[in-house]
């Protein structure tokens, strides 16, 4: 698959699950197309399109390591996202990164991410958590922040305060993940 073929596929109408799976399989065999895919995610966001972000999310679920050479681009650009259909899969990718780094202690991820890149994730996830965004994005953001708080100590008290303030008025999904996150924070002594 070429870059042009990828872009054409991503911009040829809504993608079915089987078509997404097919594109992901091609991308697993063509690592050089990960950066063009990521660039297309950010381009499509400006047009309120989301095929690229959906494909990107499914690719990251299969092989998160493909993002590592592109962390600088990823962490610089995610803050600019405005479409909820793009934010949700990117917030999920942030959670995958945080879990790989802090929970699974994946050496490749740890060695690839800089402190600045981690700080950009913190900044973006707090924005997604406290601003008007869909619940899935907030849930991914709170989980990501929980893990990032293992590196940046000030995060856990802030996260706890935000969750305690908003949990009563949140949806059932927000309350469920919020309670689990608060329980994990209490277990850590916060």
Quick summary:
With 190 residues, the chain is mostly helical. The chain has helices at 3-10, 17-29, 34-46, 51-62, 71-77, 84-103, 107-112, 115-130, 135-148, 155-166, 172-187.
- Compute the number of strand runs: 0
Give the uncertain stretches in residue-range form: none
| Quaternary | single chain
> What distance lies between the first and last C-alpha atoms, to the nearest angstrom?
50 Å
- The number of distinct helices, counting runs of at least 4 residues, comes to 11
The rounded Rg comes to 17 Å
Order of helices and strands: HHHHHHHHHHH
Helical proportion, percent range? over 70%
Q: Work out the strand percent.
A: under 5%
Class inferred from helices and paired strands: mainly alpha
Structural account:
By secondary structure, this protein is mainly alpha-helical. The chain is 72% helix and 0% strand. It has helices spanning 3-10, 17-29, 34-46, 51-62, 71-77, 84-103, 107-112, 115-130, 135-148, 155-166, 172-187. α2 crosses α4 and α5 (71-77) packs parallel to α8 (115-130). The termini are far apart.
Provide tags for this entry:
single chain; 190 residues; mainly alpha; 11 helices; 72% helix; globular
Fold blueprint:
Elements: H1 3-10, H2 17-29, H3 34-46, H4 51-62, H5 71-77, H6 84-103, H7 107-112, H8 115-130, H9 135-148, H10 155-166, H11 172-187
Helix pairs in contact: 2-4, 3-4, 4-6, 5-8, 6-9, 8-9, 9-11, 10-11
């Amino acid at each position: 698959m070429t870059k042009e073929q990828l872009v054409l596929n991503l911009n040829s109408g809504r993608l079915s699950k089987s078509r997404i799976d097919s594109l992901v399989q091609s991308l697993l065999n063509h690592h050089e197309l990960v950066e063009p895919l990521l660039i297309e995610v950010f381009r499509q966001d400006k047009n309120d399109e989301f095929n690229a972000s959906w494909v990107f999310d499914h690719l990251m679920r299969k092989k998160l390591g493909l993002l590592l050479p592109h962390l600088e681009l990823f962490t610089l650009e995610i803050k600019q996202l405005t479409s909820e259909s793009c934010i949700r899969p990117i917030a999920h990718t942030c959670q995958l990164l945080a879990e790989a780094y802090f929970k699974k202690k994946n050496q490749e991820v740890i060695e690839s991410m800089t402190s600045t890149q981690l700080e950009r994730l913190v900044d973006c996830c707090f924005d997604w958590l406290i601003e008007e965004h869909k619940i899935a994005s907030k849930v991914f953001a709170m989980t990501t922040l929980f893990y990032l708080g293992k590196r940046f100590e000030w995060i856990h008290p802030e996260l706890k305060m935000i969750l305690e303030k908003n949990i009563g008025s949140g949806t059932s999904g927000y309350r469920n993940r919020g309670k689990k996150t608060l329980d994990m924070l209490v277990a850590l002594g916060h």
